[in-house]
């Protein structure tokens, strides 16, 4: 049996076994007229009056009416019921109506719901209105995907089409509104927004639609909160830039910059400033217990060979054991990781110093540690190098670009590093960070198949500054003591 599909939610079309049937305009209008009857038989005289009047012709003698209708019925039946006579047809049936002194020939279109798009549309919407939000959203989206335009378009505004057109139009509006509500119930305001925007364009004077659209946009702004930018990275997860506090990113692993001595002492701000990110780490995540942080750092550093140890007379304050820049210690805190990465050198004069090459080398060692110990969770990082250990050669915009470029370069080699890189910018730093430059970089330098060039960011590549990207796995365990990642 042939697979039949009649579509009237838009320009009418008939497909048989997936192949469009080529019908003349009058035969197409006859098909639409039979669909509009909603399964009821239509007498020959009424068919001629409705279909041929649409074509601009005036009714003639009854016999001619019958001949014209039968000719179009025969064409339609060849497509719908090939080889079948009227009394044996499955889809386009011939019936006799007893509406007067003599029986009158009539034609009835019999289609299953999956053979007629408006019937399938109605069933999907009706069932969705009684379903749970997830099921409702799925069915409503499938129903709306069937709509290609005005229903029964070939019928114009004829009386015979109005009841079905009104019903389908009302159901279409109900489906769109319910889809918006279902997606909102599921927390998917981003998917509800395009539906509401289209409704607002089509119904500019509908105050209810305007209020719904405004509410959706407000919820999306609220959801994004302090999010300033979100962009998928080729071969990796998303890049997100947020305004706020690093330690408020409770769903993400954190990156905290340290000096090469991994000092934590903040007394009188002599060694480490209380205001620095590493200075806040003790209070914000370790409950003010500096010894707890020190113990975990030292447990991770035991697996590494230090560069050297300063003499007491040369460095009387703070820790004296130095480690290579890029050394990364993953610390477990409340079920997530804090990646303590050395990116600056703390001089014996207690001044931290770093440069672009130092930062790039540290980032190139950081990302493998994130990939190995990060449990594939989002990783949040501040603008490392913008604080007291500032990299004077790079302003905040170029620091941001270096972090993003380094992460993107690494993810080309290891896409499973993290589902999201979240760069957290303090409100005080935002006005000095040009996100439009980052937008240009993302649009031009990170297109699929492209390779960032030194000119794309103005900060060069690893090769330009003479820094490799290799790192050595220490094999340390990533438990509470953290283990460590670094270069011997």
What does this structure look like?
The chain is of the alpha/beta class. It is 41% helix and 16% strand. It is built from 15 helices and 16 strands. It has helices at 25-36, 44-54, 62-80, 117-128, 133-145, 162-185, 189-202, 207-224, 277-285, 290-301, 356-373, 396-413, 427-430, 435-444, 454-457, and strands spanning 4-7, 13-16, 19-20, 42-43, 92-97, 104-109, 227-232, 238-243, 253-259, 308-309, 321-322, 328-333, 336-346, 352-353, 379-382, 420-425. Strands 7, 8, 9, 12, 13, 14, 15 and 16 form an eight-stranded mixed β-sheet that branches. A three-stranded antiparallel β-sheet has the order 1-2-3, with no helix packed on it. Helix 1 (25-36) packs across helix 3 and helix 4 packs antiparallel against helix 5. The radius of gyration is 35 Å and the shape is rod-shaped. It starts with a strand and ends in a 31-residue tail after the last helix. Residues 452-482 have low confidence and may be disordered.
